[in-house]
Amino acid sequence: MPMSQDAASKCATLADGMADVASWFRNGQDWPLLAPPPRAEWLALLRSSREQLCASLSQCSREEVETVLRARLFQRPDVSTQLGLVFDRPAAVASRIAAAREIMAAGWSHPMAAHAFTIAVLDAQPWEMPIMRDLHTCPEHVMERYLTWLFVRPVYRAIGDDAKYVAWLPEMLDWLKQQVDAPALRQRLAALINTTIRHLDIGMVIYSDVQVRPVLDARAGLIEAMTRQIETLHGSGPGPTALRPANRRIRLGILLRTIMKHPDPQAFCSQFEHFDQERYEIIVYSQDLVDRQCEHDISLYQRLFRFVSAVRTLNGLDVRQMVDRIHADDLDVFVYSYAATIGASPTDLLVSSRLARVQILMNSYVPMSTGFSSFTHVATVAPAPESRASLLGECREEFAEIPRVLLSYLPFVPQPAVRPINRAALRISANAVVLYNGGAVDKIVPVQLDAWVRALARIPGSVLVLAPFNPGWSGVSGATSLHGLIESTCRTHRVDPRRIIVLRELSPRDTHQLYELATVYLGTFPHGSSTSVALALQAGVPAVTRRSPWLRGTGDASIVQSIGLDELVAADADAYVDLTVRLATDAPFRAQVCEKMRAALPTAPFLALSDYGHALQGLFDRLAHESFAYPLPADATGVLPESAERSAA
């Protein structure tokens, strides 16, 4: 095939144009209140540009295509997902994907490998394509693009896509581990590991409705291989030993992203400030995160230092230095509150090391195992009996039960809104039923949205309001794919997509107004939304939840059941739809639930911070006694105090 610089230049120009459109989609800067579907002319331009780019690729040599891959568009190779192109699969695109799949199966040695990879980036998702196994034959700058594409967070287009992604992940992670150990890639090992550390993110597994233990085990094996190859990824000291100084308080360390005003330290204070300081010496390790939710708060600092012995920063340290800093404190107990990012970040590498005699994975809003052998226990609320078997199947760690409720929350205190949000602003009629969800965009997966749209179809005059974008999440980068999913789901159930109102990125102060509009709050599944459910109940809005066979989905049910509202827990997706419809259309039933809710809230365990803190200390007292024979206090039981038991009853 003759080389054509004109074709290569055209490809680069088209790619730059698509990158400009992608920037608008990601930022949504002209959205005053709503996050609307993409403009039809922009989508048409994107699709036309993609078709022209794919056609021009056939006129380019392999070297030219490798040059095109340096364009801005491919620096973030999530173009097909973030721009919603995965929802546009006409016959020509499907045929192009099939041809690319055959070439990619042959590996990088195929003369059209770069062409096929470029088409895959534009048309498909990594888990839909074969892994190109001969990575050592891939040009180095293309290798980084390929790995970054492999690590792209998926968009689930249909029910069952989560199972396909989860089934593909162990294969990809095991292959990546083989590349780390491969002699042929020895000269590129640093680039391989650095790209993995920066970009690997498999956090979407928490939004799947299937067993994920094989994924976590494969991720643990990859990190073990990485730390074995790179000396700076593990500590230089021996780590904690069985011997500890006699008569010393229990030395407890906890890893926080920041000590500035932020949900992390606020939750930490509510959980640990009630610990007995004569028994516990608490050390905080801060990563000094500064994001759009962070702000200085003198009262929070004062509250923190009433019970914290020391704060140590980990900012600017490599993994080895972080491990050594924590080892120097000779911790008895190390606590890590899991978040939604699961990858091979410095934090993941840090906690994969044994840092204390007892290493506990504790509730963030995602109770879930890490798969790391460094952890001895996972501490969370007891699952429903039908979930216990799946819990034991997913956890490598021992299970340590926190009584009654997943988390304890600060009581909600209304704050002045930044902008008024009411029915008039959203063009919702005064008598319309408003279903509301304020969970992050990643939680709106096909099985969840399908249930919501089915409920809409059965509730005359209803609307669904979504507030999926938050300064602490992913901004508005998922808006286009979300609208693609909304369009396809509404088309399936013959519901007008205009009945779903998607709001732009709002401050937490603004989103609290949405509870005042809501008739029913919709909890999320398979991943829970326990914080939003707790806020809804405090606002007097009944929340629909679904029972989960997975530990990561137990939070919502634990919140409503802790105040005796078992009737708000549906057994499955169909029952969830039925319950939503009944709450929305059966006014006496809804009034009965709301009255029961109001009566129970004053003694709600998820708002009883002191009781929760004492129960949590009881659990830690027991673990310290079992692990290194620390004496139990006379009243240490690891259960809620008697007063709270009476109140809950």
From TrEMBL:
UniProt GO MF annotations: glycosyltransferase activity
InterPro entries hit by this protein: Glycosyltr_41/O-GlcNAc_trsf, OGT/SEC/SPY_C
UniProt KW keywords: Glycosyltransferase, Repeat, TPR repeat, Transferase
Superkingdom: Bacteria
Residue ranges of domain O-GlcNAc transferase C-terminal in the record: 423-614
Pathway assigned to this chain's UniProt record: Protein modification; protein glycosylation
PANTHER family: PROTEIN O-GLCNAC TRANSFERASE (PTHR44835:SF1), UDP-N-ACETYLGLUCOSAMINE--PEPTIDE N-ACETYLGLUCOSAMINYLTRANSFERASE SPINDLY-RELATED (PTHR44835)
Name of this protein: O-GlcNAc transferase C-terminal domain-containing protein
